[in-house]
């Protein structure tokens, strides 16, 4: 299992310290949640903070943009040196065009679905993305309860990927802990995002290790 701890739950007053243990941990990616107070009812952090985080982080970045018109920020995300750029299906009109633009900028395109957005909408773009992020909570806040219907969506997505020959990874975000992580592993998730479960722990590295061991 790949594990992407979400910085949203970190202690921002001690970012250097947080990133130090993070770099030494078995985490695969750093998940970064950008919120604009419009697409979601909350505001998190923007590019000045991300530039600081990038300097401290030694692992690939998974940028999750919970903003309207995410296509306007492709260059800024590329300039950060990010690996994945996650854009919400619901925030876009021209999905195919934006996915191509993200790839042309040297990033790995990923598309994100809210809990109420059906997997079937991905049929014609599934072969163009490197990852699909299924939200297992309504986006905007950490520490929410996992929506069990997500398990069925992972199943559907796994079938779509297998049927089309897509190489997209399946990433899940929201309410992930060892219990929900185990269920997600069973239905075929590839990447688990975890915020409060990891950063809220006395020993976050142990929790990352436990999630990584899931298969
Ligand atoms: C929520 C964010 C998540 C959040 C997850 O909108 O996209 O990445 O940090 O937090 P937990 O793991 O606490 O549910
Ligand atoms: Zn996220």
Brief descriptors of the model:
eight-stranded parallel sheet, alpha/beta, 8 helices, TIM Barrel, binds D-xylitol-5-phosphate, 8 strands, 19% strand, binds zinc ion, globular, 215 residues
In words, what does this structure look like?
Helices cover 35% and strands 19% of the residues. The chain contains eight helices and eight strands, in the order E-H-E-H-E-H-E-H-E-E-H-E-H-E-H-H. It has helices at 15-24, 47-56, 74-80, 95-104, 150-164, 178-187, 196-199, 204-212, and strands spanning 2-5, 30-35, 61-66, 84-88, 108-113, 131-135, 169-173, 191-194. Strands 1-8-7-6-5-4-3-2 form an eight-stranded parallel β-sheet. Strand 3, helix 3 and strand 4 (84-88) form a beta-alpha-beta unit. Bound molecules: D-xylitol-5-phosphate (DX5) and zinc ion. The site of zinc ion has 6 residues, from strand 2. Zinc ion binds at residues 6, 31, 33, 64, 173, 193.
């Amino acid at each position: 299992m790949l594990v992407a701890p979400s910085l949203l739950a970190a202690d921002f007053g001690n970012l250097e310290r947080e990133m130090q243990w993070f770099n030494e941990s078995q985490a695969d990616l750093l998940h970064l949640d950008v919120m604009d107070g419009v697409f979601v009812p909350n505001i998190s952090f923007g590019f000045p903070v991300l530039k600081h985080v990038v300097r401290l982080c030694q692992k690939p970045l998974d940028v999750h943009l919970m903003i309207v018109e995410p296509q306007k920020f492709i260059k800024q995300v590329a300039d950060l040196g990010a690996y994945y750029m996650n854009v919400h299906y619901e925030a876009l009109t021209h999905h195919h065009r934006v996915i191509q633009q993200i790839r042309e900028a040297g990033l790995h395109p990923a598309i994100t679905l809210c809990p109420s957005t059906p997997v079937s909408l991905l049929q014609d773009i599934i072969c163009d993305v490197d990852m699909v992020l299924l939200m297992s909570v309504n986006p905007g806040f950490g520490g929410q309860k996992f929506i069990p219907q997500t398990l069925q969506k992972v199943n559907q997505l796994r079938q779509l990927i297998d049927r089309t020959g897509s190489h997209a990874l399946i990433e899940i975000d929201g309410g992930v802990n060892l219990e929900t992580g185990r269920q997600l592993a069973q239905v075929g998730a590839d990447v688990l995002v975890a915020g409060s479960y990891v950063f809220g722990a006395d020993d976050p590295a142990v929790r990352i290790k436990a999630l990584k061991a899931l298969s």
